[in-house]
Automatic annotation (TrEMBL):
This is Polysaccharide biosynthesis protein C-terminal domain-containing protein. InterPro entries: Poly_Biosynth_Transport, Polysacc_synth. Keywords: Cell membrane, Membrane, Transmembrane, Transmembrane helix. The chain crosses the membrane at residues 44-65, 77-97, 118-136, 142-163, 175-194, 200-223, 244-264, 284-306. Its main location: membrane. The lineage of its organism: unclassified sequences, metagenomes, ecological metagenomes. It is found in: Cell membrane. The keyword tRNA processing does not apply. The keyword Cytoplasm does not apply. It is a multi-pass membrane protein. GO terms for cellular component: plasma membrane. Pfam families: Polysacc_synt (PF01943).
Length: 308
């Protein structure tokens, strides 16, 4: 292109004077940028609508559930659930959903098999540890098992979302998170109607609806994206298990520090105060947290392109 410009310095010279092959070369970057922007705009729109509906539904769920079980019951639920957010979720996830997005966007689908193997090994080690800790702290067995089940299903779902983000298709994720949280409110309404007010009801409903959402997104990937995943396996960069472990542990530590910073006050309240204070604080925290989702939406839409 530079050599051609040296011979055509006239102000009236335009792209039309190039041979057809050179015109195509010049137009390729602009077409690629236009396509990338179109994908970003589509993903951002879908993710924004999906997350707004999901956050609003989840906030409504927590308000209804807190009203159902009272501040003490909601505090008991929140203490165990937040403990899972701080310790269990980072240990199970290890940031692997972000790594799946990164490597799938680069055409390396081997990360899917390796990440599920890592998650399986960590889950096998964590399940007996969590059950033993819950028994030592005298946590309700039903509450402990349902919270543990929720986080196990959640980490699987996040990995599936990571695959879709790597393929730059956020529509299934947006649809799934919205529907499963709406379903959670509907199922909780059954327990409200039956006047069943137990702390484990919240985690049971979240577990069941998260499982339903995971089945839905798995079906979408199987039917719609499996061919795209096979086509994407074209990278020359070899991903070994040791490298993925190193990246996962680093990201897992970052996730732990993030959750610890924002949620440790809930645990401290449970230790030094009563479950009622934990319940009141958790309701206020959920009201505040519902507004902090726009940066997450933008990052989810832009991250696959940045990874490439």
């Amino acid at each position: 292109v530079v050599l051609v410009e040296k011979h055509h310095t006239s102000p009236a010279f335009s792209v039309c004077h190039f041979p057809l092959k050179i015109q195509k070369i010049l137009l390729m970057p602009s077409l690629a940028d236009s396509r990338q922007f179109s994908i970003f705009r589509r993903n951002l729109s879908w993710n924004f609508v999906g997350q707004v509906v999901a956050k609003a539904s989840l906030l409504l769920f927590h308000i209804i559930f807190a009203h159902l079980v009272g501040t003490a019951g909601y505090g008991e639920f929140s203490f165990v659930f937040v403990g899972g957010l701080i310790l269990l979720q980072p240990a199970l996830d290890l940031g692997l959903y972000q790594l799946i997005t990164k490597w799938v966007s680069r055409g390396n689908t081997e990360v899917i098999r390796l990440s599920f193997r890592i998650k399986g090994l960590t889950a096998l080690g964590l399940i007996p540890l969590v059950l033993a800790t819950g028994w030592w702290m005298e946590v309700s067995l039903l509450l402990l098992v349902t919270v543990l089940g929720f986080f196990l299903i959640n980490t699987l779902q996040q990995s599936l979302f990571g695959i879709l983000r790597g393929l730059e298709d956020l529509r299934p994720e947006s649809l799934t998170v919205a529907l499963q949280n709406i379903l959670a409110c509907a199922v909780l309404g059954i327990f409200v109607f039956q006047e069943i007010a137990e702390p484990w009801i919240g985690s049971l409903v979240l577990l069941l609806t998260r499982f339903a959402g995971t089945v839905l997104v798995s079906g979408i990937i199987w039917k719609k994206n499996l061919t795209n995943l096979k086509k994407s396996a074209s990278t020359s960069e070899i991903l070994v298990s040791k490298k993925l472990w190193k990246e996962a542990i680093t990201l897992g530590l970052v996730l732990f520090l993030n959750q610890f910073y924002f949620r440790i006050d809930t645990i401290m309240l449970g230790v030094i105060a009563s479950e009622s204070e934990v319940g009141l604080y958790s309701v206020a925290f959920n009201l505040m947290e519902g507004t902090f989702f726009i940066p997450t939406i933008v990052m989810a839409a832009i991250f696959p392109g940045l990874s490439q």
